[in-house]
Design brief:
The complex is a heterodimer. Chain A is about 0% helix and about 65% strand. By secondary structure, chain A is an all-beta fold. In chain A, the strands form 7 sheets. A 4-stranded antiparallel β-sheet of chain A has the order 4-20-14-15, with no helix packed on it. In chain A, strands 13-18-17-16 form a 4-stranded antiparallel β-sheet, with no helix packed on it. The radius of gyration of chain A is 49 Å and the shape is rod-shaped. The relative contact order of chain B is 0.24. Chain B has a 3-stranded antiparallel β-sheet, with no helix packed on it. By secondary structure, chain B is mainly β. In chain B, strand 2 and strand 3 form a beta hairpin. Chain B is rod-shaped and about 60 Å long. Classes of the chains: A mainly beta, B mainly beta. Chains A and B meet through strand 2, strand 3, strand 16, strand 17 and strand 18 of A and strand 4 and strand 6 of B.
Chain lengths: ~280, ~80
């Protein structure tokens, strides 16, 4: 049943709900509590531009032609044609007999064959040269990269003797702005970011930016992590880039030099323990 | 006036109700947890991919990640 017990080293509160005793508070339990808070302003996160490499992909013939004059024989051309002589009446008058006479000559066709003689002449023509000139062609790829940077951004809370406390967990409340929105090197558009525009909290790591290939597979990630190590609060910034090809020859990534992103964060860090 | 200590058959209050049996105080447990407190880095990137270490300590990869990071499970807590 519900109750409260207090002894030299233990305070315990029990709440009975539907005949089930639920521990509300028990100093023998490890209960999370905040032992220190740190405010950090303008924490900068900076990712450099990506790099690209020109890769030799092969070479191709550049065809060349020479304009040459060539003496060629234009052969004789034979051709046929016909002419038609029309029919004809001839009338004759005889004075002696005072009479007329008529004579008819029918029309006829005459067939001919003639020729235009052949002749020699100079003609100009382009003559293909055996490929004597080759030019290389290139494909560009984004350089694969694994980048990691760890910085100390705060000291951990200390006890009365100045010894750093053994922190069990950290809760970070953050506001952030992307002061430079890096572009996807392939496109004229900013890399997608997952940083909320308003206050957000996290424990551990945060995905800042990512991008995928046409297949949907990831090729680019930028993250940050906040955690304790030794007597320090650490900020770890990581970038991972898988090499991708441009997919076209002799054409680099148009926005490779605009892929730098920068962030500025204000962090309110709660340092927690489960037991004093 | 703030309550210093008040005990009734159904409720316990102390220190101005900072401690109150009608509240649910989070505590660490060894099993039967309601949630976990994550501590430390819980994401890693490698090969252009991402690994997310879930609060229970298991890895969730994106199919591209090729690293070997291993995070730790969060601390079990019960409400």
């Amino acid at each position: 049943m519900s109750g409260f017990t207090a002894s030299n080293s233990r305070i315990r509160v029990i709440e009975t709900i539907s005949s089930v005793d639920e521990t509300v508070f028990d100093t023998d339990n490890d209960m999370p509590h905040i032992v220190g808070t740190t405010y950090l302003t303008n924490v900068a996160v900076d990712f450099d531009d990506l790099d690209q490499t020109q890769n030799y992909a092969g070479e191709e013939c550049v065809p060349t032609y020479t304009l040459e004059s060539v003496l060629v024989y234009v052969p004789a051309v034979w051709f046929n044609f016909s002419t038609f002589t029309p029919s004809e009446w001839t009338q004759t008058y005889d004075y002696y007999f005072n009479s007329f006479s008529r004579e008819y000559v029918s029309g006829f066709t005459t067939y001919h064959r003639d020729t235009t003689p052949g002749f020699m002449e100079y003609q100009f023509q382009y003559v293909y040269n055996e490929c004597g000139a080759y030019t290389p062609y290139y494909e560009y790829s984004v350089d694969a990269e694994e980048y990691s940077s760890v910085t100390n951004i705060a000291n951990l809370p200390t006890d009365e003797d100045g010894t750093a406390l053994d922190i069990d967990f950290v809760i970070v409340q953050a506001t952030g702005t992307r002061s430079t929105g890096g572009k996807d090197p392939r496109f004229n558009q900013a890399l997608p970011t997952t940083v909320p525009t308003k206050t957000f909290s996290f424990q551990g790591s945060v995905l800042l930016e990512s991008s995928g290939e046409a297949s949907g597979d990831s090729w680019f990630r930028r993250i940050m992590s906040v955690y304790t190590s030794g007597s320090k609060l650490k900020l770890k910034v990581q970038e991972s880039v898988k090499s991708i090809n441009r997919g076209a020859y002799n054409s680099g990534f148009p926005h490779i030099d605009e892929s730098r992103s920068t962030y500025s964060f204000n962090l309110k860090v709660f340092f927690g323990k489960f037991r004093q | 006036m703030a309550i210093v200590l008040k005990i009734t058959p159904t409720r316990f209050q102390a220190s101005g109700s900072k401690l109150d049996s009608q509240r649910r105080y989070i505590r660490k447990v060894s099993s039967g947890e309601d949630l976990r407190f994550v501590n430390g880095q819980n994401m890693d990137v490698s090969g252009g991919g991402l690994r997310y270490v879930k609060p229970d300590g298991t890895n969730l990869d994106d199919g591209v990640y090729d690293g070997s990071f291993s995070g730790s499970a969060g601390t079990r807590v019960k409400v």
